[in-house]
Amino acid sequence: MIPGADEYDIDVTVDPSETERLLSVMPEDVEAASELSYCRNVFVPLTTACRYTCTYCTYYDPPGSATLMSPEEIRETCREGAAAGCTEALFTFGDDPDDRYTELYDQLGSLGHGSIHEYLREACEIALEEGLLPHANPGDQTPEQMETVADLNASMGVMLETTAAVQAHGGPRAKSPGQRLATIRTAGELGVPFTTGILVGIGEDWTDRAESLLTIAAMHERYDHVQEVIVQPVVENERWAGGSPDLATMRRVTAMARAALPEEISVQVPPNLAPARDLTDCGIDDLGGVSPVTVDHINPEYEWPALQELRAVANSAGVPLTERLPVYDRFVDDGWLSPAIEGAIDADTVAGQRFRAVIERGENPTIAVNR
Ligand code: SF4
Questions:
Q1: Is the whole model's pTM more than 0.85, yes or no?
Q2: Which DSSP string corresponds to 239-301?
Q3: Residue 349 burial (10 A CB sphere; 0-12, 13-18, 19+)
Q4: Which residues of the chain have pLDDT under 50?
Q5: How far does the centroid of ligand 1 lie from the alpha carbon of residue 93, in Å?
Q6: How far is the CA of 369 from the centre of ligand 1 (A)?
């Protein structure tokens, strides 16, 4: 039984024979993709407050030191990102801050907002005004919270991480796999193209990995809304000394993801955390988002260092590297997007032409990159 499944009324079950079948999949059983995609994004860390304290996470700040970006900072970051050729404003978040974060709520109040989701809506409006498509990843969301912002996001996401109960989520405030699945279900019910993924090495075993992937596949089968699944290794940092999965583990679990998921779902590894060059034959077809990193790199005449790395990964696999939007093409073609997002993509502006060019040609005409 998935922890939290009862509380959140999750009725997805995985057939044990499917789990057994998936556990037998090895890298040689899957095919390499014929191209690798990526998206140009700019990080907008709206808040570092989080109700949880996952033991591997360096993102969250405790009450008193958590930050909230101001509207001016959001606009400036989005403007710089759009000028550098980004198409996505990636709103990174801690999970719904709880009432220990009094200072943050005071700050939200002084900005005229009663909740972080109300403020996220304003932030999405700013991103659209500056020529970027929002993709928000605000942790677990209730249907009401997601409805507040869904029409202003090209896509949204939350990592499932695992369906297992693991110590790394433990402590007085542990996040619940059942709640994560409820968020993924809500996205399906609201018709939001969605990104999720698994986190490898946080205490789950191989059966847990197989069940997590099959549970995502089952959710997608119901709603057809999952666009990509990230296979992310946990990495050592100042809060996590529990090690990182080795290459053989990453190769096998990546191949399992490819085998578990239907073709229309991309399998992504983040090249800054995973050995992407050694995983291209395990079925990945996406390398995630790449950012200009610092203002110094916001120069259209030079390829960003991180983009050069992605190109090197694609070259080593002998496949082309193509650009994509934060929402995958099939959702644009099949009418999933809200009028606000569709309007932004179709707008007869520089940004609109840029978005269309990425959809039609897989590259961004506003950026002259060194190839
Ligand atoms: S929910 Fe996300 S941001 Fe919060 S502590 Fe866990 S990993 Fe970090």
A1: yes
A2: TB-S----HHHHHHHHHHHHHHS-TTSEEE--TTTS-GGGTGGGT--EEEEE---SGGG--TT
A3: exposed
A4: 297-298, 368-371
A5: 8
A6: 35
